[in-house]
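Notes, Module 5: Reading structure tokens.

Key idea: the token line is not a picture. It is a compressed description, and you learn to read it the same way you learned to read a sequence, by spotting repeated patterns. We will look at two proteins. The first is printed below with its tokens.
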Amino acid sequence: MQTPSIREWGREWGRSGRDTWDRFPNPVKRALKVLLWAVGILFLLWLILFITKGRFLERPFERIATSIVGREVSVGGDFQLYSNLHIKFRAERLVVANPDWAEGERFVDSKLIDLRIDILRLIFGKVLFRQAALEDTHFALEWDKAGARNSWTFGETRGEPFRLPEIRRAAITGTTLAYRDPPRRLLADLAFAPIAARSSRFGEAIGFKGGGTSMGKAFRVTGRLESPDATVAGGRNDLALRIEVGDSRIDAAGTLPGATELDGAVLGIRARGGNLATPFLLLGVAVPETRRFDLGGELRPVGNEWRMTKIAGTFGESDLSGSMTVRTGGVRLFIAADLASRALDILDAGPWIGIPPERLDSMGGKGAITTEGGRPRVLPNAPLNAEGLSRLDAQIAYRAANVRTGTIPLQNLQLTLGLDNRLLTLKPVRFDFAGGTLTGNIDLNARRSPVVTRYDVNLSPVRIADLLRGFNVESSGTNGVLKGRLHLTGYGDDVRESLGSANGRIAAILPQGNFWLRNAELLELDIGDFVEAALGDKLKEPARIRCGLIAFTVKDGVGRADPIFIDTRRNVIRGGGRISFKDESLDLAVEADAKNPSLFSGQSPVSVGGWFAAPTVNPISGKLVGRAVAGGVLGALISPLAAIVAFIDLGDEEDTNCGPVLAGASGAAVRAADKAAEKKTSGG
């Protein structure tokens, strides 16, 4: 069989192709012709652009760009726009004007911008710069004073948060960036320039430095970004960054997929300094102050979130571990955190309620006490930063296995902090101590002025013996418990103002239990019972409490005893007076009446005065001194035995109905029950 020649094979292929074409329906033929023409035209356009480098598009580009962004766009030098695997854009002396409200005239002012844009990404609506070269380029990023518009969001729409463009490789010379954000009080200026690479593995290295102010606090930034050499396959960009603000320093180091591609990056972070609230000022938000801190972890940017994991370190004398996520792009910054301490030193919690950390560092626990007008003050008066709260939402969980207090140890501290548009909640705050649990819910509403704070605290029964041991007081023979409730509403921008204007009620309830004799006898100064117990070698004989209530009704920051009432097997103890959150003063008096006759009973009040930070107890009141003088006069005029008459207690008290007392009722209800018991006894 003879092999066909090339000419014969071509004629045969042509006849076959025509037969195939003839078999296509006419609509298909027309569609194929349109497609072929389109491909041909596109190829012709590409060829024209490639040959001319698209320089003839300079003026159309200026007109179209000016129309799209709504500002003047001009090119004063060479212009190129064509495709060669990727889209190439090159413009010399490119200027993009700022909007009329901006302080600066130009948003972009560049000697040269040279870009390679990924075609496939662009087809799917995403922009990736394979390469970017900037020479003497200046960017001015600015928000307006209302925080509604910015210079990089074109048109009349609301300003969008700034997002770095994705750049794989960058070569930057003599380039600066200015950022102005008046609502967040953030001003920054950065300069970029090429530097020597640390290794031959890197093709380019860019150094940057600058500074500014955030929330009135100055900061400095330095760093370097090294891009891999083009001949190194799969190379990643190495970033080293340092931020210094006040006496705090943040160091970050790691690798980026691209020069500005953050997704997929892993950065090691270490932050240390005198106060953790200081570096948070860079975010334009206010967080509680801390003592000196040293924390590390790993930072992973994912979309609009910055996820910090493996947090480990210390603040003050306490350890801290956990994770935190900072989310941007919303109306307000959002922080979510899950943090824990094995051991929390109580002094390290002081700054959370406004005690200056500097005072705690230099003075220890005494740093919580200040002197004003010659009197000690312990309630902190550091004002709440309502402005900082307005820029932040949060959901933070914190746990501490143990809390070191120096007196009564606390365990299993748990708190959940929520912040939603200036409404701050602590729901719940709870910890265990002395066999019981304190649980509190606190709502702090900074949406109103002044700030409204609601305190709701419940104390489940705690063992009084454990409380006494915490203060090195002998507690043998004591098995009573104490429970309580606090419900207050206060107004003011700090703890002192809030409690100083508070209204509500505070109550501590003593159910039935035994107490060491000497702790109870002091209230009545019952010399006879004390001598009897001493002679009988019964110093640790328990005094039996039937019920007790120590309560205060608080109005405008002043709590009046309502009531102080304790019913024991031998005595009925009553008290009165007030405590003031306004000036932190104490003015109380407690007096006991015996149920059984006692020869040596000095039934005069025990006064409690002074201040929250320096209370005084005076068991020898003026009334008791008067009775002692009367007894002395009688003894001098009649006989020594007559002096005893002034100290005789007739023992006319009866047992009280404990129902209202154990319910924490008001003083009126307790007094009614007390009188009812007396009438019942006298009637019987």
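Here is the second protein, with the sequence above and the tokens below, as before.
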Amino acid sequence: MKFSRGYLILVLVLGLIALGIFGNAHDRAANPSVEYSVEEGSKLQLDIIAQVGPWPVASRLIGYRGKLWFANSVKGRNHNSSDIWSFNPETGETRYERHLYSQDAGHPLVYKGLLYWPFEDALQSAGKGVVEVTDGEDWQPLTISNPPIYHTSQLLEWNDGLLAITGTRNAGMQLSMDAGRGWKEHYIHPTPSTHVSRIKEMLVFRGETYASLKDTKTKRLVRWTGSGFQTVDGWPLNRYFNGMTIHRDELFGIVGRGRKREIWRFDGSKAVRVDFRGPFVDLTSDGKQLWVVANDGRLWSSLNGNDWERHSDLKKGRPVSIQAIAGGIYAAGAGEDGRGIIWGRRDHVIPVGEEPPKLVSQHLAQKISMDWQAVGQKIDDLLADPETYSRSRIGEVRELTDRASVNGAPFGFFAQRLKVDIPPAKILAFGGNMELDARDIAHATLLAGMERAGHANVPIAYLTDPWSSPPNSYEKYFEIELSAMRAVVASGQNDRDTIAALLSRLDFPDDPLWLKSQVIGTLTAVSGKHFGYDIAAWKKWAKSKQN
């Protein structure tokens, strides 16, 4: 049978068009940056339910006591910003809750009826991990006293206890079997002195513990063996990954950077790549569907991890995280207006749950009897001795003040030590890259003792000390007002003079914004008011108190 040349050309063109349609369909399934249609009835529409500032990113989503809780901070660099906010779906109220004296917040956890917030990089922690626990209204600080610890990145319910993922140069695991009252060092990852190790995204999957581990310039998925970590074969090596999520008895994660990140899955024995790529930033599962969000606002879901359905885009911001909470989907990120932004369903209900238990406290039930005059004199002698600072003996002062703070030091004990004349010495920190005043370090140590003891006698002058430190790349500062504010919060010091000093500081022109955020956090804690960054509301409240 013969065909004309024109007919053959027509057939060829139609064939190419068909191949193009098939190829585009395949690209749309494998690359979510390509548009395709989804049935309107199946789309999930998430609204903007909260926008908070002054910091640009919202993250760390968690549900507790009928509210959605989240952090507002600066990401991607050292910065002393870490505010905790809540959104109440029933009332539509967004409320400023707490300031964490930290560079960002770690991953929170609801554990035994209480909400725990780790300090990702605690300020002036003296090498100890810091966690704050709340029942939804009141807060209590907890210290992980296994130095050195500078980072507490995650909390996890683990082996019938509470596990904290920590780090300095070495990644570590600290375990508490009494809800955070006491901690024991469980594991320190062996790390050469020329490298840094980090454990992240730890979770329990099929009865075994998995995590992201970076050390000796190698990043990999690892399994806990009981005494260390073993690399999971088949999972990509030396590639960034995040968003580790369990869905339908499989472990999923996002691998890579840029616009063509991949989704990988692991069934406990074999890791394979899902044929789906895009600028993904986070994964979550609501038990029925696996959800992934991209940094361009596109939202997708899948029942099985293979076939994906696109939902309505998230508007007016760049998502950084997504979380399934009580069957609802929420996303958080950076808003176009420079504030943190939250997306969710306004009509979704987060259960209040049962009445929370009493807050955890680290005050010892049985205290050690101490000769307070002798202990005070020993601390005074160390503080006044120049060799305490030249020979790095400040650790002895910390040890004595710690013991005194938890064993019933009499009121005024630490305030009396603040009167000691400190020699005009300097202390080198951060590998000799920073020079600190001995006076600031000594007073910070004493105020930390006052903080743990709950002594409400911080000198008012410390709260109004002018800010004079130049910026540094570590964003670490040890001026006296920082330690003083933390001690005021922990002790509940809320007399008229303290409140007046804090309110006056809101008008200090030389204070950086992050320092003003600590003043606001301190005022919130001691007043019980939740005005956040509404300075006019604070002043109106202060005027009403005077009247």
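Summary for the second protein:
- The two ends are 104 Å apart (CA to CA).
- Residues 7-41 have pLDDT under 50 and may be disordered.
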